[in-house]
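Teaching assistant here, posting this on the class forum so everyone can see the example we discussed in section. The complex has two components, and the goal was to see what a joint structure prediction looks like when all of them are supplied at once.
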Amino acid sequence: MKNKSKWLSGPYVLWMVLFTLIPLGVVLYYALTDSVTGEFTLSNLANFANYWPIFLRSIWLSIFATLICLLIGYPVAYYIAHCKPALQRLLQMLIMLPMCISFLLRTLAWVALLEDTGIINNFLTSIGLSALPLIRNNGAVILGMVYNYLPYMILPLYTVIMKIDHRLVEAAQDLGCNSRQVFAKVTLPLSVPGIVSGITMVFVPAVSTFYISQKLGSPGTILIGDVIESQFKAAYNPNLGAALSLVLMVLIFVCVGIMNHFTDSDDEESMVTL
Amino acid sequence: MRKVNRVFTALVFIFLYIPMIVLAVASFNKGTDIAVFSGFTFDQYKELFRDKHLLSLLGNSVIIAVLSSLVATVMGTAAALGIHSMRGRLRSAVMTMTNIPMTNPEIVTGVSMALLFAFVGILLRTNAVLGFWTLLIAHITFNLPYVILNVMPKLSQMDPDLTEAALDLGCTPVQAFFKVVLHEIMPGILSGALMAFTMSLDDFVISYFVTGSGFVTLPVEIYSYTKKPIQPKVYAMFTLIFITILLLMVVMNLMQARDKTKRKKAHGLQKEVGR
């Protein structure tokens, strides 16, 4: 029976080959061919050098956003993990709930809040203060990223912290650790798998985003996602778009590979589940 | 320390919900400027229910979400059962493939599928490949890993003796699956299906690349508002969607809580019998 049930995966494997592996092959094909003649060329990939500053900007902004998410997310995940079970479920649900509302609209709501004549600035001027330049700068883009991807940091952290065996904490206390030492020597090392998957889950969408930067950033601070999007929707040069996507993908797989090096946990279990 | 953390957590929750409050308040606003509240009204809701176009777009989103999560749940659950019985290299190969759409940025997934469909379009000599079917295929593809990653842990938590017992008591393997295994992994299947449904309903990036002019979903339409001003009835719509999902989650939560207490009771009973 064991041998037969293996075949239940058949349709799935076929599906994934057709719609995940083959498309990646098509990306490779487009990236390596000329847009006009269709002949083999490396010029699309070489073109990538022109976009290097944009790549760097995307990477820097998302590293910032990821670190802020980690600093904000860890205490929250820690707090939730130490609540009573019923409250834990409620808070976990409240973390996920905003993810269900279109991120486009939530970003538009931030635009309404931050704009020069937006809600925050209207409030500031009404109490006699001067308006602040809150939008169309890198800070606003980072805020947008942090806001949108914070739940992806909190959830895996929470899952891992919750599973830490409390007897280990008690043992450390018995052996004379104070609460700071317990945290530094027991809790933090044991939450590394959660930190790694949280960082991955925030960094990947942040580095490739293209809507947040359009709405909250200035026209001069486009990100690599914006460039790829415009190759398909405005400029129509799918070959260059494919080449940039390929570079982005390789970059991310390298980053994720390095990150996963820090943890030897089984990936199957550390992903977020409801 | 715990008190400081409580205040901090509360602040983070407020941060997460500020835009939701802005949208909800804007849905009752008389004026059209989201930043200025000029009086309370239900007009946006009335407008919304008169707008056949917007409602049909929501309908499109729901159709795609229901169909894609249904197909993904059936195919994904079967796949999880299969993977569960795999060992060694084959298993890790299939799991790696499952992780590709999870680690790949959405924009790359969207681009790769768009290029695949463009390629197929060239082969078939047609321009009209993009539409309902491409959207459905794309959504099923990115939903599948969520189902598998929700079902797999339940399968490994399950006591293998249960299936053995069912087989010993005369069940065929198929009967054993439907009477025992399915019941045990149901919470995983349900949460996987729900996750797939919400992911699909809210997906913008991948849909944006594989959608055609014939069949548009709600998030894709909202993106086009970047060029024209957004209509306030959209806020009304999302306030209603927010409330619906909130209710759905509360029901899920209560069901899970009931399930947990039932399990606890059963566990306690087992201990009693064991004694």
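For the discussion questions: The longest helix of chain B spans residues 233-274. Chain B touches chain A through 97 residues (CB under 8 Å). Think about how each of these relates to the inputs above.
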